[in-house]
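SEQUENCE-TO-STRUCTURE ENTRY
===========================
What this section holds: a protein sequence and its matching fold, both as plain text.
Tokens: labelled as protein backbone structure tokens, with as many entries as the chain has residues.
Question of interest: how does this chain fold, as expressed in backbone structure tokens?
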Amino acid sequence: MTEFHALVPAAGFGARMGHDIPKQYLPLAGQPMIFHAINTLCSCSEIATVFVVLSPDDSLFHEFDWTPFGDKLQTLYCGGHTRADTVLNGLLASEIEPDDWVLVHDAARPCLTQAHLDKLIAELRDDAVGGILAVPVADTLKRADAQGRIAHTEERGGLWQAQTPQMFRVGLLAQALQHCSAVTDEASAIEALGLHPRLVAGDSGNFKVTYPQDLRLAELLLKEM
């Protein structure tokens, strides 16, 4: 029977946050930031295993208490230099069946909800390719020139902002990342194979914590969840 698994790449640092520890371990609502995504993923009955892919020299993850998640949470110390390397290494080390689904989720998207997961899985479980959570672009987009001035306004019709989880068959995603590793998300690697992932409408609450001020917003949202 086909299973669903989750994979959280967490080998990066997040330099734009301006802290001395990796972003995923910054305190947020009484827990390290990564805890909140893991908690949501582990709470999903459809997901069999949640793999967290860490840097080989990570010494912080096991300073926190992960016992509530039991064996459903698995750690893999095989993170690479890039996100694509980390995800591919995690897929290969996890030994998941090629036909199983994997939901790759950012450690820095702590406000993921069960509703997000339910919708993504429901809309993609019979899809031939897979797809991603995303939201239509609402703001006016400006293209900058080399001097930091507006070169022109981009047409936003049909543009979506990619989020995570991004859900694909394990074998297909591994093949795609081996074929094209110079990508910033999994969907881009799938696209490089000539395939067209499906867009599943999410919402702005599932945002990525990138700058220090984002922590305050994330904390407010988590208190309301």
In short: The chain has a mean pLDDT of 95. Helices lie at 33-42, 83-94, 114-124, 170-179, 186-192, 212-224. The radius of gyration is 17 Å. The domain at 4-125+164-194+206-224 is CATH 3.90.550.10 (Spore Coat Polysaccharide Biosynthesis Protein SpsA; Chain A).
